[in-house]
Design goal:
- The protein has about 300 residues and is of the alpha/beta class.
- It has a single domain, classed as TIM Barrel (Alpha-Beta Barrel), CATH 3.20.20.330.
- It is built from 12 helices and 10 strands.
- Helix 8 links the parallel strand 4 and strand 5.
- The two termini are about 25 Å apart.
- It binds zinc ion.
- Zinc ion binds next to loops.
């Protein structure tokens, strides 16, 4: 496969991905509980500023601000008529910042629908597949380099997303799960099971994001590595678990601590892409990029 992603992966031992979007946009004025994705249309300059800050910090990869961009999720926000525009614009905003910086990659971000698939829940699989296809088509049209399906708990939902994406584009697909429940996902999926299932589906990049603590996420990725030595792995963990200080959510992991563990993700688990999830900031990514750059040489 000859893609921009492959070119970058062949040139570097590890690529740095960006950090949190939701928690950062809240700092920039997004009211908690409001849909961050809507800001692509209402506050495009703020979204570009966030992308720019991550590029300046050293991110090789930025995620589009479209985590909640499926029709299923946007419908609950009253935004069903803006699905295409939110995703298309989200991709275009990230693409234009990536182009400013030259060779940065854009991953089109696809999060869970927030509804449980039948038979556990009531969402028919075909409806989910169509929603993922619709989102992936708009992201592809907006110029992303790959699609990232993230914060997954249910392997069946990952399967639906992959099927939907493949029905509209041949771009590379990455899938990361959140191992936040005693080393498993909320659905009880083990890392070993996830990596095997996703490799069988020919997913290009597999890994873990969000989760509970950094060391638990490292543990999950090490388990993936143990059963899949050939897999291209990535990690985008939280900056730890949040606690409240003066009624504000505070993530305890410092940029330095995140950079230290990023080195272990690369040297021990062989991840090829490392970034941050909830609570991580451009300062975290700057420290991570510096630590990982020193590994390249
Ligand atoms: Zn997260």
């Amino acid at each position: 496969m000859n893609t921009a992603l492959n070119t970058q992966l062949s040139q570097k031992r590890v690529l740095v991905a960006d950090g949190a979007a939701g928690t950062m946009l809240q700092q920039m004025g997004l009211a908690p509980g409001n849909a961050p994705d809507a800001w692509n249309l209402t506050h495009p300059d703020a979204v570009k500023t966030l992308h720019r800050r991550y590029c300046e910090a050293g991110a090789d990869i930025i995620y589009t601000n479209t985590f909640g961009g499926t029709r299923i999720r946007l419908s609950r926000e009253g935004l069903a008529d803006q699905v295409r525009q939110i995703n298309l614009t989200g991709a275009q905003l990230a693409r234009s910042v990536a182009t400013e910086f030259g060779d940065r990659l854009v991953f089109g971000d696809i999060g869970p629908t927030g509804a449980l698939l039948a038979p556990v829940g009531t969402l028919p699989t075909e409806v989910a597949i169509d929603a993922f296809a619709e989102q992936a088509a708009a992201l592809t049209e907006g110029g992303v380099d790959a699609l990232i399906v993230e914060t997954i708990s249910d392997l069946e939902e990952a399967r639906a997303a992959i099927e939907g994406i493949r029905s509209v584009t041949n771009l590379p697909i990455a899938v990361t799960l959140s191992f936040d429940t005693k080393g498993r996902t909320m659905f009880g999926v083990k890392p070993e099971q996830a990596v095997k299932a996703l490799l069988a589906l020919d997913v290009t990049i597999i890994g873990a994001n969000c989760g509970r603590t950094l060391s638990e996420t490292l543990e999950a990725v090490l388990k993936m590595r143990a059963v899949a030595p050939e897999a291209l792995l990535m990690a985008k963990p939280n900056a730890g678990l949040p606690h409240t200080e003066n009624s504000a959510l505070v993530y305890a992991v410092t940029p330095e601590a995140m950079a230290d563990i990023a080195v272990r993700f690369v040297t021990k688990a062989g991840v090829r892409i490392f970034g941050g999830c909830c609570g991580s900031t451009p300062e975290h990514i700057r420290a991570v990029a510096a630590a990982l750059r020193s590994l390249q040489r």
